[in-house]
Amino acid sequence: MKIGCHVSIAGSIDLSFKRAKEKGCTTFQIFLKNPRGWSAKALEKEAVVRFKNQVVKSGISPVFAHISYLPNLASLDKTVNKKSIESLLIELERCKTLTIPYFIIHGGSHTGGSFKQGFDTYVNSILKGLEIVGNKVTILVENSAGGKNSITGDITRIAKILEEIGDERFVKFCFDTCHGFGAGYDLRNKKAVTNTLAVIESNIGIENLILIHANDSKGDFMSHRDIHDHIGLGRIGEEGFKQLVNHPLLKNKFWILETPVNKIRSDIENINFLLSLVENKKG
Ligand SMILES: [Zn+2]
Ligand SMILES: [Zn+2]
To answer: Does the residue 117 lie in any domain?
Structure first.
């Protein structure tokens, strides 16, 4: 079971490997730039070389990159749309430069227009991204907590996005447990997990689910709220995660935690807690 968490790139992007190692990660996730702004400071050449060396030598793989917060790839506002695509392309270009194989994008919101308009804009954004990365980077569409104007809260709509792109090789799925729970996919017990995975299997295909963002939820079931909690301490709870990590369909998936950073639990403690729920460690 490959498991890790989101890791900071503060100081220099290659330092993420050292941090991931310290947290006991066997895979991890980073941002490619300051996630809270539109601008992207150029990557230092030496840092790129050091990063690529670690990709080969560290034994920690794969590295996942997550899109920054501001882009809305479904935006119908011309200015926001332009900036969002620019940011997407810069970040995808960085994946290519750094030899990062997976890039996660969140769902957009079709504020100011119809669902259909937002959906088409979102699909077109992905197609533009694929044009520049060719077969070097796989884009993972992440489910959102749903709610008003959401493009990706509903798993059947994500299936439609993948279908519309029409190239299953380079666009796949990332399931965030906190978002799924908020959107109305129950995960609190064995039956609920089985049902939710059946929805993924029948619409998207388990083979197209690459990554699980393992986060508990502070928000209630179907609340459409996106507030992450420590594993087992939120509304999904310990039983839900126990069922998830032991489910045969999720055996070969990658697990990344985006749990809160506070005094209640550290990243290492969350990773170890999730691992402690695995029943047959050898399997
Ligand atoms: Zn997530
Ligand atoms: Zn979230």
So the answer is: yes
